[in-house]
Amino acid sequence: MDLNLKDNVVVITGGAQGVGRVIAHTFAKEGAQVVIGDLNVDAGEKVVREIDEIGGRAVFIQSDVSLLSDTDRLVAGALENFGRMDVMVHNAAVFLLGKFMDVAETDWRKVIDVIQIGAYNCARSVLPTMTDQKSGRIIFIGTDAARSGDNFQSIYASAKAGVVNFTKSLAMDVGPKGITVNTVSPAVVVTNENEAILDKLYGIKTKPEKAQKMLSAYPMRRLGQPEDIANMVVFLASPQASFITGQTISVNGGYSMV
Ligand SMILES: NC(=O)c1ccc[n+]([C@@H]2O[C@H](COP(=O)([O-])OP(=O)(O)OC[C@H]3O[C@@H](n4cnc5c(N)ncnc54)[C@H](O)[C@@H]3O)[C@@H](O)[C@H]2O)c1
C-alpha cells in the first residue's frame, strides 16, 4: 500500500536510538523528511547519516522534550529545513522500574516531565502550524502498562496513562481542525539497546526454555520488534488513517487486550 507520505515532514522525539530510530528510518523509506530530536547528539547524528545513506532526508536537533522552548525549536527546525510540519511523534521516554515507595520524588518528576509534559509540549509547539495547515497527525508512543498496570511501574505506567487520556481529550479538541491524535501502545519491544538486559532477565537470546515462559503470555509467541511499532505509526500518519483519532492502539502480539 502506498502510504502517500512522500515529502511529509515528521518530527520524532527520542529518535536517536531504539524504537524511535526505526520509526525515523521507516518514515524516510516512505519518502518523508525527518527531524530527529533527542538529547544524545552522537547517536542522533548517526541516524541522520544512516538515513542519508539510504537516500532519505533527515536533520538532527539536540533537544529536551521536557522543555517547551526545545519542542518549539524542533518545530521551527522542521519549518526552516523542510517548509512544512505534518506529523509529530512523541516517542522519547525514560523508563523507571521500582516499588513505589522505593522511588525518589525527583525520579517521578523526571519521568512525568519527559513522558507527560513532553506530550503537552509537543502538542503545544506543533498545533499553531497544524491548525494553519488544517491538517496534521500527533502520535504518542505509550505502553500497555498504561491501561493494564504493571508491577514496579507505578510512576512510568501512570505517566503514560496520562498520555492515553490526553490523546482522547486533545483529539476532541483538535479534530474539527483536521488534526488526528493517537497513541501506539507496545508491550515489550526488543531493541539494539535493551536486548542484553532482556536476555539477562528472560533469556530471550541464550535461554530459549526460560524465554518460553515469558513468551507464553504473548499469543503470537514472540516479543515486539521496533518495526512492528513503526509500521503502525506510519499508517496512523497516512491519509488512509484520516478517520482514526483519539485511539490508543496496542501493537503487542496480543499480550494484553484492553
Ligand atoms: N522497548 C520497550 O520494550 C517498550 C515497551 C513499551 C513502550 N515503549 C515505549 O517506546 C518508546 C521507545 O522506547 P525505547 O525502548 O526505544 O527507548 P530508549 O530508552 O531506547 O530510547 C529513548 C530515547 O529517548 C531519548 N530521550 C530520553 N529523554 C529525553 C528527553 N528529555 N528529551 C529528548 N529525548 C530524550 C533517549 O536519549 C533515547 O534516545 C518509549 O516511549 C517507551 O516508553 C518501549
- Level-2 CATH architecture of the largest domain: 3-Layer(aba) Sandwich
Low-confidence stretches: none
Q: What is the N-to-C succession of helices and strands? A: EHEHEHEHEHHEHHHE
The major sheet is characterized as: 7 strands, parallel
**Unique ligands:** nicotinamide-adenine-dinucleotide
CATH topology type of the largest domain: Rossmann fold
Q: Helical element count?
A: 9
Question: Can you tell me the CATH class of the largest domain?
Answer: Alpha Beta
Mean pLDDT: 98
**Portion in helices:** 40-55%
Distance between the termini: 28 Å
Global morphology: globular
The count of β-strands is 7
Can you walk me through this structure?
The protein starts with 8 loop residues before the first strand and ends in a 7-residue tail after the last strand. The chain is built from nine helices and seven strands; from the N terminus they run βαβαβαβαβααβαααβ. 47% of the residues lie in helices and 15% in strands. The chain has two domains: 9-189 and 225-251, NAD(P)-binding Rossmann-like Domain (Rossmann fold, 3-Layer(aba) Sandwich), CATH 3.40.50.720; 190-223, no CATH class. The protein is an alpha/beta fold and 258 residues long. The longest helix is centred in the middle third of the chain and has 29 residues, at 105-133. The structure holds nicotinamide-adenine-dinucleotide (NAD). The site of nicotinamide-adenine-dinucleotide (NAD) has 27 residues, from α1 and β2. Residues 13-14, 16-20, 37-40, 64-66, 91-94, 114, 141, 143, 186, 188-189, 191, 193-194 line the site of nicotinamide-adenine-dinucleotide.
